[in-house]
Specification:
The chain has two domains: about 240 residues, 3-Layer(aba) Sandwich (Aspartate Aminotransferase, domain 2), CATH 3.40.640; about 100 residues, Aspartate Aminotransferase, domain 1, CATH 3.90.1150.10. Helix content is about 35%, strand content about 15%. It is built from nine helices and 14 strands. α4 links the parallel β3 and β4. α1 runs antiparallel to α6.
Length: about 350
């Protein structure tokens, strides 16, 4: 039976990427496994360089003063690295969910943090708007997509100060003017590859402006100078991310995948809105194209619905405990067919009820 993977992360990956990755685990270079070759060997150095180049190419940032890095520690480590490298006196943060809340907590270790706006009052079911960004702060930080709550920033402010964005769960999924951002970071495991690597794309001229001493492992300039090879990189995760980025380029890039993502989102949200057995969690204007969150209107149907979901081969649909209910994560590699299977189950439940 075909499986339909709606897991919020680690994410679904293209089948051809998984196939190529599995072959590389057996034989990547002259009988050596990808898992055992030196990260300093030319075959892997070429992988790293290609992955970094593809990231910049797909984001439209080639030749614009940006560097792409593949680091470790997940987005959670970036909460610290951003502050260490950019926070001198004060920074402004938009609080739209669990991860932005954690980013604020970590940054506060180093200096004063100001929440320019927050949606915590409604359990993060909307994106704040109409806020002001102080011009004399070091940077403005936002989270583009909130995996847990199913909200997504549809527009970004014209920030008068450097703008930092955590794009962990929707990077490479939609067209944006990425040059508006001075630093972007994203854990690979949401929409790019397996867990273990974190992509950082940073405009080089914003660095080196803080007075504090930065530990080498936390210094973006050190990692740039060593081409993401300051320490042993997460070889497998970088390789699979490279394959996924090449897969996306071959499809036609972000412009083409955005069309598919729009179709998937329209299909499931239409069912949520029309089917009286389900209720959407996020405010309609701020619904995420990556993570659709919803609950049952009648919890008595929970066992029946979940049995039908399992029988249909649907995996990873349970919502986060902060919201409850269900969460359909529709990352780039998830097919429109899989969303259709879920919608058919939801429709069938209505017919049975």
């Amino acid at each position: 039976m075909k499986r339909h993977n709606f897991s919020a992360g680690p994410c679904i990956l293209p089948k051809e990427v998984i196939q190529k990755a599995s072959e590389a685990v057996i034989d990547f270079d002259n009988g050596l496994s990808l898992l055992e070759i030196s990260h300093r060997s030319k075959p892997f150095v070429d992988v790293m360089e290609k992955a970094r180049a593809l990231a910049l190419e797909l984001l439209g940032l080639e030749g614009k003063g940006y560097k792409a890095l593949f680091l470790q520690g997940g987005a959670s480590t970036q909460f610290l690295m951003v502050a260490l490298n950019m926070l001198e006196k004060r920074a402004g943060y938009l609080n739209t969910g669990t991860w932005s809340d954690k980013a604020i907590k970590e940054a506060k270790i180093y200096d004063d943090i100001y929440e320019v706006a927050s949606s915590k009052d409604a359990n993060y079911n909307y994106i704040p708007k109409g806020y002001d960004i102080p011009t004399d702060y070091d940077y403005f930080h936002c989270t583009s997509n909130n995996t847990i709550f199913g909200t997504q920033m549809k527009a970004f402010p014209d920030s008068p100060i450097p703008m930092v964005c955590d794009m962990s769960s929707d990077i490479f999924s939609r067209q944006l003017d990425f040059s508006k951002f001075d630093l972007i970071y994203a854990g690979a495991q949401k929409n790019m590859g397996p867990a273990g690597a974190t992509l950082v794309v940073v405009k080089e001229d914003i660095l080196g402006k803080v007075s504090r001493k930065i530990p080498s492992m936390m210094d973006y300039k050190v990692h740039i100078s060593k081409s993401s090879m300051f320490n042993t990189p997460p070889v497998f995760s970088v390789y699979v991310s490279m394959l996924t980025l090449q897969w996306l380029k071959d499809l036609g890039g972000i412009a083409e995948i955005e069309k598919e993502n729009d179709k998937k989102a329209q299909l499931i949200y239409s069912e949520i809105d029309l089917n009286p057995l389900f209720k959407g969690f996020a405010t309609k204007a701020d619904r995420s194209n990556m993570n659709a969150t919803f609950t049952l209107a009648n919890e008595d149907l929970k066992e029946t619905f979940e049995t039908m979901v399992e029988e249909a081969g649907i995996n990873g649909l349970n919502g986060h405990r902060s919201v409850g209910g269900y969460r359909a994560s529709m990352y780039n590699a998830l097919s429109l067919e899989s969303v259709g299977v879920l919608v058919d189950v939801m429709s069938e439940l209505e017919r049975k009820a």
